[in-house]
């Protein structure tokens, strides 16, 4: 999870939910989209949505949903692999 201030208020609750399921919560540095695959996903979605013009809120909601559905599973795997690669570079003090 990123270390954005919006997550601070409920971080104890979120940590507990994650740990209760047998996982460990790892917080990423603030403003580190390269380490967070969801940021890469949203960047892809935003590019698709920006290409459209909207007449109303429903058009926007529909386009966002369609853009999310249009991201191939392989792209998601690539986003994750990219984040893992960048994380390893950070651990090795290699420039990214």
From TrEMBL:
One of its GO terms (molecular function) is nucleic acid binding. Pfam families: DDE_3. Residues 1-61 form the Tc1-like transposase DDE domain. It comes from the Eukaryota. Gene3D superfamilies: Ribonuclease H-like superfamily/Ribonuclease H (3.30.420.10). InterPro entries: RNaseH_sf, Tc1-like_DDE_dom. This is Tc1-like transposase DDE domain-containing protein. It comes from Parasitella parasitica.
